[in-house]
Give the backbone structure.
Amino acid sequence: MSNLDMIHAAARRLDGHVRRTPLLSSSFLDEIAGRRVLVKPECLQHTGSFKFRGGWSALSALDPDVRARGVIAFSSGNHAQGIALAAQRHDTTAVIIMPSDAPKMKIDNTRALGAEVVLYDRATEDRDVIGDRLSAERNLTLIKPYDEPLVIAGQGTTGLEIAEQAAVEGVTSGDVLVPCGGGGLTSGISLALEGHAPEMQVRPVEPEDFDDVARSLKSGKIERNDRQSGSLCDAIITPACGDLTFPIIKRNCGTGIVVTEEEALRAVALAFARLKIVVEPGGAVALAAALFHGDQINGDAVIAVASGGNIDADVFRMALERYAE
Amino acid sequence: MSNLDMIHAAARRLDGHVRRTPLLSSSFLDEIAGRRVLVKPECLQHTGSFKFRGGWSALSALDPDVRARGVIAFSSGNHAQGIALAAQRHDTTAVIIMPSDAPKMKIDNTRALGAEVVLYDRATEDRDVIGDRLSAERNLTLIKPYDEPLVIAGQGTTGLEIAEQAAVEGVTSGDVLVPCGGGGLTSGISLALEGHAPEMQVRPVEPEDFDDVARSLKSGKIERNDRQSGSLCDAIITPACGDLTFPIIKRNCGTGIVVTEEEALRAVALAFARLKIVVEPGGAVALAAALFHGDQINGDAVIAVASGGNIDADVFRMALERYAE
């Protein structure tokens, strides 16, 4: 099956289970950006991020007997919640291995969605060892957060919707900005657009100091981030792009765009004021790029994916305090 | 033309211009409410509230020559912005008469949407005198905020979408909770549901101390509020229900539900955390009723309209400070 066929197959499995998020806009944002800005708010997706698409795609494609034994995932946040809900709705168990210093809200939510949460200490324990032991003991299926074809296909359904919804708005070309961590969403959308909106180009967006993908696209090989924590954009911080996702991104995407953490927070405040949506800093980097890095962007209109909204109230209040007009 | 035909006609005029907002939900909210909760987030509508529907409906139905002379409206907020954008997109002038103590953000936004804003002092000036003078001088058409059939029909399109979207979710009966000020949205939705989801019943929701509609439904005649200001729920504070809207509400709706301002703020915080949407206190009263007044509600599922999101950052921060978990 071709990549595009896999995305179509995922879309059929997701139909009726995953929310079709709308395309939002505001003349106030257009004015800041100097061009039309269309926002795809995946923060409105079930569990507050696009991750539910990939989770559902993977779970729904498993052999029922395999699925019934349960799945396992490593995640500090959005992937955890996406898998937890997808497992709950498939009446199976999800074991989620989370660092003990993950945001409390994300741990609580994952538990509340019925998952078994196993916490580990990042400093002293090896999560892979814990994962291998649990998988072996209980015959669980590992669902990787991005380097997994079924997950990429699930995230790619976002791209199918973007192509359709943007066309209704009269937009068929230009840049599509996507917050990029491990590259599942970025690569998936790029594959969908390659098939359905070939004049659009995906541009990965990352926060300063965690711009491994932008650097990888320059050097042509997978570069790594020095740090893996210490950013408000936690949702999209990964050690490096995936072995499956990077070749797709390299083939399909334009150069990366890098924004500051403060620009991401300003975008959070503007999304509050102008779109009435709640976006987390990592999910707001693409909107930040659209608004504040227009010189690096092509086209009369730009599309920005707001990939998630799982932000702590304290951080949200800080963003409003600093940047609300 | 019947009421329902008017709503269908409005829906045709609105098509492609007004956003079809999705239907949102969260298992966390279901748990609080003790039943399924579906939320219709009109805060995601253009200008941040359902008012754009009525504005577009009225403007688009005017004779082009009449429309070209411009329109006039009285409003302290959401109706102002809805009319301003509808006029801008119809290439005509909107004159909006606003009290000088209206929220600065709403005045600024109305101006930024191209309207001529005329401020008056609530204490010393009569807005009707100002309005009559301007209308006469410039031959402007008055667009009333709710007691106008075209406006009611426009707001009613929200009900068409609710009937369709709820049916997809398997919900065809139960209460539909609607924040109620002058009754345009409430009456419009009730007419649409009467035609398309006759087993659903609209329930008007109001804040404590401004419960004129609940009292009117009890007494059978239009009751008034003593005060017209001093509520965080400013968006839905009116002197009384309209002469056109009340008879419809009386015929179609169940008893009113009254929530406290603090319950509205809790609903604002929960909509932030669980739905990732920004709702203003007045727009959150129906969700508050769904979550905290379940004993007054009928049905296994309840639908709550979140009617607007034009909230000042300070008030939003306060809601999070008090009620974020």
Remarks:
- The first helix of chain B runs from residue 3 to 14.
- The interface with chain A takes residues 16, 19-22, 24, 27-28, 41, 43-44, 48, 85, 105, 109, 112-113, 168, 269, 272-273, 275-279, 309, 313-314, 316-317, 320-321, 324-325 of chain B (CB under 8 Å).
